[in-house]
Amino acid sequence: MAIIIDGKKISADIKEELKDKVSKLKDNGVQITLVVIQVGNDPASSVYVGNKKKACEYIGINSISYELPESTTQDELLDLVTNLNNDASVNGILVQLPLPKHIDEDLVIQTISPSKDVDGFHPQSVGALSIGQKGFVSCTPAGIVQLLKRSGISIEGKECVIIGRSNIVGKPMALLMLRENATVTICHSKTKKLSEVAKRADILIVAIGKQHFVTKEFVKEGAVVIDVGMHRTDNNKLSGDVDYEDVFEHVSAITPVPGGVGPMTIAMLMNNCVETVTIK
Ligand code: NAP
Prior knowledge:
CATH superfamily of the largest domain: NAD(P)-binding Rossmann-like Domain
Largest sheet: 6 strands, parallel
Helix content: 40-55%
Shape: globular
Strand order of the largest sheet: 1-11-8-7-5-6
Bound molecules: NADP nicotinamide-adenine-dinucleotide phosphate
Structural class: alpha/beta
Number of domains: 2
CATH topology of the largest domain: Rossmann fold
């Protein structure tokens, strides 16, 4: 019988641990502050920002939010980020993506001080990950490693196939699995014989952005399947990149959508916020 990897429970456990750490830090006079910046009022971004604020409140992290109008100029945003970089009372800075089209996202990310880069998107953070140095790790991939470890699934020596090579999921995921001593293959839209390659995986991680793309033809008997995808169906339910019903009988463990990878992202963001005072 397959294990259903419980991201809700694991993320709740992590948040409890962090709450405890934050309380101890407060006892020692250390208060953590996260600044979240949203430009414009994209409804999905507003929901994400709201959830981040709630998580901060629960854990005991002070959250400050800037809700800036769509008309904010790139220079205004860069100035704000620079001021926050120089503000010693601010530990973490998060700029909610996507930004309006007239603002260069890469430039904004590069302007955030790497020591406050709790999203782990700054080139220095990515570089540190790739050469095994300390730095913030992108939250969703970091959450997946926690899901595996806390579900008792060993990574070392395993064949890991990742479908998707985005900068926020696929690539950092590959680097993390390499750091955990897996043998890693990264697939993308130009990969030939994708289902055959995927079938080599002991651990198959799918971050492709196509609903129910991965069926049993992609899954080796007994594989662990991690579904990063998130899609809203016509009847307003969430579903993933993996056809859960189709693959279920073939896997040894699988993340459901919702309740798998999704809840881990915010938990790991909170972890990065706590690391702003412990990582140095
Ligand atoms: P993305 O930037 O769109 O990247 C998708 C990747 O999949 C690309 O590397 C693309 O290849 C590859 N791909 C697309 N079609 C393919 C095909 N037919 N065969 C093989 N590879 C293919 O997406 P993302 O940001 O990584 O997100 C992926 C999914 O995860 C989305 O559903 C997103 O909503 C979800 N997500 C969830 C969370 C969470 O917290 N749970 C966080 C982030 C993302 P190319 O590079 O060749 O184009």
